[in-house]
Amino acid sequence: MRRRHAILAIALAAALAATACGGDGEERAESRTVKVAYLKFGTFDANDKLFKKVKPTFEQQNPGVTLELIPIEAPIDTEYHTKLSLMQRSESTAPDVLYEDSFRISSDVEAGYLRPLDDYLAKWQDWGQYFDAAKQAGRAQDGKTYGVLMGTDTRGLWYNKELLRKAGLPVPWQPGSWEDVLAAARQIKARVPGVIPFNIYSGKPMGEASSMQGFEMLLYGTGHKLYNHDTNRWVASSPGTTDSFRFIETVFKEGLAPKPQQALNPNFGTVVATDLLPKGKLAIALDGSWLPQSWLESSQKPWSEWSQVLGTAPMPTQQGQAPGRVSMSGGWTLAISAKSRNPDAAWKLIELALNQENSRYLDVIASQIAPRKDVAADPEYLKSNPTVKFWTDLVEVTNYRPTYGAYPKVSNEIQAGMEAVMTGQASPEEAARDLADSIRSIAGADQVEDAT
Amino acid sequence: MAVTSPRRAAAAVAANLTLAAVALAFLAPFTWMLLASVDEAATLKAALPERPTLDNFQQVLTRENLRAFGNGILLSAGAGLLTVLVATLAAYPLSRFNLRFGRPFLYTILFAAGLPITAIMVPVYGLFVQLDLVDSQLATMLFLATTGLPFGIWLTKNFMDGVPVSLEEAAWVDGASGMQALRRVVVPLMLPGAAVVFIFTFILAWGNFFVPFVLLLSPEKQPAAVTIYQFFSQYGQVTLGPLAAYSILYSLPVIALYLAVQRTLSGAFSFAGATKG
Amino acid sequence: MTAEALSGRAARSGRAARRGGVLRWLVPMSPAVLLLLLFFTGPILWCLWAAFTDIALTGAGASSPRLVGTENFSRLLSDPAFRQSVLITVWFVIGSAVIGQNCLGLLLALLLRGRSGLVRGVVGVVVVGAWVVPEIVAGFVWYAFLSDEGTLNVLLGRVGLEGTSWLYNLPVMSVIVANVWRGTAFSVLVYSAALSEVPTDLVDAAAVDGAGPLARLRYVVLPLIRRSVLTNLMLITLQTLAVFTLVFVMTGGGPGTRSQTMPIYMYQEAFKFFQLGYGTAVALVLLLLGALFSAVYVRALRPEV
Predict the structure, then answer these.
(1) What is the pTM of this model?
(2) Is ipTM beyond 0.85?
């Protein structure tokens, strides 16, 4: 009996050793393979389609090189990025080209994961086609560029034409200032009961949506920013932050926005897109260019009349001052890993995958906004969805978030401040003060300034 | 056995009624899920679908999803069997012999198992890279079995302690060796306990997203716990109808498993039966 | 058992251990030990180390992690949100594990004994179904049940009662109930298996002696399954301490931080920012909490000498 157990133990160890000894012949093949890792899941397989489309051409143009696709199926950005970071920690599993959120570039550069692309970009003619804001998106704090934007998104106002007409507002609706927006919401509240006049994402449950579609859409319309690129300092406090918090307080206090109970819920984005807007329960939504994705034929709950029922308008600046419109953008890029054994071939892939034709292909199938001027003018792109031109036109005034290391925590504090204000637990002044203190302690007092 | 006295019958009725109430209470929250699965326009509100349809199920029963289910069953059943086997072997000496390191060992492994998976997976991934085990379903299954070991050993030892040594001694007296006694006497009485450990490890592995997500690279090898996220979109929107349908299908293997072992779980045992050969 | 038999048993197992020597226990335990050594030891030691560093998956903490001593811990202890999360976690464990899952599990296991296969099947399927449904879906299920226009308020409305914003006004209660729903199956299984080892002869003998069902439970059954009660409590406590997705989907830890249990705190303050060092430090405190609970259980369930 004892012998049997010994044999079992040895067998187990042997099995382990056997699995461990697999795959050492791969070393040699590595340098002739270009590995591209990207996000893919269920409804979002645009990357997959793009790289599958590009693979034959790429291999033809680079004889002897194979393109290996590594789709990472992850639901949430954090999980994807976790896996990507793990892969990048060791040379044997690091991909050559990766699908990288522009937002994460700075911290990944600090971690030593990415390779600067400036040398390649200097020789790439297509680079001139990119909007300036789009170029900025791939830049890190050291001034070098690490990612080429594949597509982006913009934000603005969606409104229900029927409901606005019922309230006696002009359609098409073009608010010129915050006051115009508030006045419209008040009018809707008075004349169309039973409907939520206005939605702006706020509070911690909606996470980054509150920061980007909410607070920053307001702040960047006041003429102030979160980060001063000229002095390389965080702006801890400004009249803009107080005014933005005040706007939030107003819409929630006056009942122009959804009840906090309803709004403070991590699933509220789904509720807005699949319930409130299609069913005409929400009149004005400060939201993003990607909403139509929920209403397409291919989606869960197609809403074919969306383009007739909904109109779009840019979110105005606070007093309508130049440039008159405000938008925030995010976007994903293609980047090259610092540990790549084949950076030149990796760059060739990026060049190919993001040339005019492929960039347009991707933007159409992924409902993304074009970062390139030539694609933005391309009729194929423009006819893909009735509102695309509107959203693309916002790219020239759009802002990108400061992608620097402290941002995620700053964003967290912004959300906390919004929540305090919308539930009446803090006044706008108090919230602004708390935010300033937080930014100071997160970024360090010497990295921070105040604006007046 | 027995005397069906009126008191016994009344007790049975009371028990059945209570159980019915509990079952209904447990079922109530599922209302949303059941309704959403047959609703092509499901929202987060439980509502009777305008046009009940089985489309969601059809949408979910793709080849890729069935393969993911298969992967999950492979990983989970494999991990479950392995854990039961290894835990039983390990629990026997812990239960029967008064080992000095017994208690420290048990407590150490229990608390070691409590560390958060996000933190553990970083060094584990590093380990797997060094051993070149990344993207190996076998290695992932071994790892999942290992995650079930701490609780498995605890549970098994616990149930083993409940089987009186006198029964084994009877077998020894009959000439059986230690291991034979284990096999012939202890193991049959341990079946309910073993079933619990198997189900527990199976569910642990079946529902585990992060481990296969990190340790496996090829999408074809991913189990159902990972592919469930296909219903979530980049901007946080969820296709609820198919998700609900998927969840129902996802629960079926474990429910089938439970039905298969439930008989062993509620068998009562009496000394009279066990002391015979 | 007679005293002779008892001492004989002790002597025999002692002798047995000595007879085979080390191999007697080493060989059967070796597969477990091998697996645990291979897969767990390294990573756990790494985690213990990480709690004293500023290691992260991205940013400076990824390229050059440094030892920061007890900085993570002092940061923890000085954060009021952390202290609040410990308190909330304690309530969560007591409410949903110690009281909820444990007692309900025992009750169900007792009631299910001797019932017909149909009854056992139906109840079992529903209870186990709650356990096996993916945690994120369980979160949605309860969100849909407890939201303002959710199933519960609709049902209450039908019988003329007014519901409330459960998730907003009673967040901790809501997640406790949801966790009881989710995890009771485990206790039911453990207690069913434990009860199956209780010889019915003893219970019947007590009944014949005139003991009612509660007395039988208290004086015959419970003492016999005392060990299982202890094991069950410890295991479900550890499981409950680790619950994350369910609470996150239902309330996100809110409103504000009113239902922020330690795992959610861990996520919001550490893992969301890929800060492994800080997150692991929180995890170690979580384990400490688990150890404290276990010490309490062991004390409480010590046999009367």
Answers:
(1) 0.82
(2) no
